[in-house]
Amino acid sequence: MRVGIGYDSHRFADGGGRKLILGGVEIPHPQGLAGHSDADVVAHALTDAILGAAALGDIGGMFPETDPRWKDCSSLYLLDEAYRAVRARGLALAQCDLTVIAERPRLAPHVAEMRRKLATVLLVDPGVVSIKGKTNEGMGWIGRGEGIAAIAVALLE
């Protein structure tokens, strides 16, 4: 058994036109997150967790933002590519747990679809993918509504 921890955060993009994608799901919100790819903090944190558990580095090393191939790329695609490298090492996801920290939007209506999409990429039952939404109780940059963060733990076997 191998354990990895992942973290990611992105600020909200200035202006409109950017979609908010979390766990591969488009969430209705007036602002999307700024980033080189689609800035999906949920998929990014999970990617880092599985890469960490496999001792394969991190998402920035595998998919550098200096590479134009990853511009506006789906983070589910990045997760899939990272998981292929993990499976090539003879490892598979046993379970993962994610916490998304945001004042808004409310995530509860979208959690089931997020779990399903992540599970599909990771070739597991949605029952081994846990996602929780938390607020920062109005404190700090998240509390001021400046962005979203996510923490992930992955167990590989």
Characterise this structure.
With about 160 residues, this protein is α+β, with helices and mostly antiparallel strands. It has a single domain, classed as 2-Layer Sandwich (60s Ribosomal Protein L30, Chain: A), CATH 3.30.1330. It is about 30% helix and about 25% strand. It is globular, with a radius of gyration of 15 Å.
Keywords:
single chain; 157 residues; alpha+beta; 60s Ribosomal Protein L30, Chain: A; 5 helices; 26% strand
List the helices and strands and how they pair.
Elements: E1 2-11, E2 20-22, E3 25-27, H1 41-53, H2 59-62, H3 75-88, E4 93-101, H4 111-122, E5 129-134, H5 140-143, E6 147-156
Parallel strand pairs: 4-5
Antiparallel strand pairs: 1-6, 2-3, 4-6
Helix pairs in contact: 1-3, 3-4
The string of secondary-structure elements, in order, is EEEHHHEHEHE
Q: Count the E strands.
A: 6
Overall mean confidence score, pLDDT: 95
The CATH architecture would be 2-Layer Sandwich
Q: Which structural class do the helices and strands define?
A: alpha+beta
Using only C-alpha atoms, the radius of gyration works out to 15 Å
Domain count: the total is 1
What's the level 1 CATH class? Answer: Alpha Beta
Strand order of the largest sheet: 1-6-4-5
CATH superfamily name? 2-C-methyl-D-erythritol 2,4-cyclodiphosphate synthase
- Unreliable residue runs: none
Helix coverage percent: 25-40%
End-to-end C-alpha gap = 5 Å
β-sheet strand percentage? 25-35%
Total number of helical segments? 5
Shape descriptor reads globular
**Could you describe the largest sheet, including whether it forms a barrel?**
4 strands, mixed
